[in-house]
Write a structure and sequence with these properties.
single chain, 241 residues, alpha/beta, Nucleotidyltransferase, domain 5, 5-stranded mixed sheet, 44% helix, disordered C terminus
Length: 241
């Protein structure tokens, strides 16, 4: 395997060399949308790949957002159809997102996916920040879906699973365009909300549903104006951009 492909399996290989045969990559999809659940997946590659290298048909796998829908579906089939790759997919719905916030919901979905794996992972590679309460030893990798093949695989499984669900939601709630924008905050989506109102799958803790006073009452009017001016004016020592 070339150095280019080996490097993105290096985190898994290091853990395999240290005796941890069950290493899971985990990632989420759907933090930014105004509607629908957040999904997460966990993927375990066979530790035999330490010697044999990455399965050739997974070369080119990367962050799901950098792949086309056709590429994501292709990799989804290759990952889920490989006899030696173990995986799990989980989600947290909009009401729970509203109760615990989107970051905690995404992390909860990751744990739910990890919990489904059998055997349980000895170590997890997590996209993003360290999760203090996660009951698995783990390494947090910022932009991990571009640095680890198992995280990238989880990214694809989560994204494809969520997109498929949102196409089903488009049939259940016609007129919102869920099949096209998947719940993300597009002009089409905002226009549909203004015209039709929110659905049960919309996240009420997100703008434009969040009550405006929750944001504005933090400061009295004068202080609010001063804060707005301060935020809008960059310090003179820093370049704008």
């Amino acid at each position: 395997m070339s150095a280019k492909y080996w490097h993105r399996l290096s985190h898994e290989c290091e853990l395999w060399r240290n005796g941890m045969s069950v290493v899971a990559g985990t990632d989420e999809a759907g933090c930014a949308p105004l509607a629908g659940p957040v999904f997460a997946a966990a993927v375990v590659f066979p530790c035999a790949w330490l010697a044999s290298g990455l399965y050739g048909k997974l070369r080119g796998l990367t962050d799901s957002k950098q792949l086309t829908e056709e590429q994501r579906e292709k990799y989804y089939s290759r990952i889920t159809g490989h006899a030696e790759i173990r995986y799990a997919i989980a989600s947290v719905d909009a009401p729970m997102i509203d109760r615990i916030n989107i970051r905690q919901a995404a992390w909860r979905a990751m744990q739910l996916a990890l919990d489904q794996l059998d055997p349980k992972p000895q170590h997890a590679l997590v996209d993003g920040l360290r999760i203090r309460w996660l009951p698995y030893p783990h390494t947090a990798l910022v932009s991990g879906d571009c640095k680890s093949y198992s995280i990238a695989a989880a990214s694809v499984l989560a994204k494809v699973s969520r997109d498929r669900l949102m196409r089903e939601m488009d049939k259940l709630y016609p007129g919102y365009g869920f099949a096209q924008h998947k719940g993300y905050p597009t002009p089409q989506h905002y226009a549909a909300i203004a015209r039709l109102g929110p659905t049960p799958i919309h996240r009420r803790s997100f703008a434009p549903f969040r009550p405006r006073e929750n944001e504005l009452d933090l400061f009295p009017p004068r202080a609010e104006a001063a804060v707005s001016l301060l935020c809008a004016t960059p310090p003179p020592d820093y370049p704008q951009g």
